[in-house]
Amino acid sequence: MTYVLQLGLIGICIALLPLSYVWVKADDNKFRKLVWLTTFLTLDLVMFGGFTRLTDSGLGCPDWPGCYGTSSPFIAHAAITAAYQAMPTGPVSIGKAWIEMIHRYFAMAIGVLIIAQVLIAWTARFKRRPLHVSPWWPTGILMLIVVQGAFGAWTVTMKLQPVIVTTHLLLGLALLGSLGWLAARQTPIPAIDPAAARWLPAALIGLLLLVVQIALGGWVSTNYAVLACTDFPLCNGAWIPPMNFEHGFHLWRALGMTGDGDVISQDALVAIHWTHRTFAIVVVLYTLWLAAKLRRFESLRKPANGIMIVIVVQFLTGLSNILLQWPLPIAVAHNGGAAILLLLLVMVNFRISSSRPGHVVGPSATAPRDAVPASLPRQAP
């Protein structure tokens, strides 16, 4: 298992770069800087995960956590070459192996950064320094990334089974959303009109609808159903084309197969695509309505504007995927747009939550930087 230790060292070395940046940066709140940087890098990792999936690189190294029992495609070069020569159109090649391993290296680096957050948070708790968050929050995020890593392993060992890959995607976005919430708790927020509190249920519904739509989009991608409908607004020349929902949404099955072990039909793929496309209309209309309503509040105007812009971009990139036959840059941008929209809705929900009377969730924009929260006792002079 020497190569596992080598993989760990690679992850630590990569994580040292952002950790060094946080350490030398002129900011009196290193923890806040670290959380925001980890959130940004996790967004990048989610997008690179989409790139890995879209380039069919998920099995570029068909074992886990290394590549043919080594820590690097350099070392596994002979095994990769042999696999490629045996099946040139198969999932293994030098390029795909590097894409897959780079994704794993950066995932390990994110794990190291979250471990650093856990250590800082618990140290602050023991030394009674305020962080405006319980140390159990970063600890929970660390547990989430462990589960995410397990699904990453099963993605490979279970040969890209759609339900495993989709769950892996959703867990990655849950990790991103949790980090975004933690970052928001560490950031001073402007005064918010208490009247915004009544929009919390609507904002939560918007977030839930988006999560369902992302799950449907992940199901489209993992089943390679993006081009099941090649026209718009019709689907293969019909508003309601022939579809097979039973096979399309049977969860536990191998890639490209039905639950009975037969090759999945085109009608099943059309059902997957059509459902994602149709539900997108609901999400777009509801989210645009919600953003328009939230723009009336000064403290919510910027994220609401961001939501409206990203929704439009998502519609255009989704349409381009169909009409331009799924070009890779646009497909990656569509994945990234969903992640950014999730972050924006998380931020909106956080700000609305903070507007509830007597509900303190983070530092105030006007509070002194060294202020001790009411939940922590002040030490005697």
Ordered list of secondary-structure elements with their pairings:
Layout lengths: L1 H23 L5 H25 L22 H10 L7 H33 L9 H22 L4 H24 L14 H23 L22 H4 L17 H29 L6 H23 L4 H27 L27
Helix pairs in contact: 1-2, 1-4, 2-4, 2-6, 2-11, 4-5, 5-6, 6-7, 6-11, 7-9, 7-11, 9-10, 10-11
Characterise the protein shown here:
It is found in: Membrane. The chain crosses the membrane at residues 6-24, 36-54, 105-124, 136-157, 163-184, 196-216, 274-292, 304-324, 330-350. This is Cytochrome c oxidase assembly protein subunit 15. The protein is an all-alpha fold and 381 residues long. It has 2 domains: 1-188, no CATH class; 190-358, no CATH class. The protein has 11 helices and no strands. The longest helix has 33 residues, at 94-126. It is flat and about 60 Å long. It starts with a helix and ends in a 27-residue tail after the last helix. Residues 364-381 have low confidence and may be disordered.
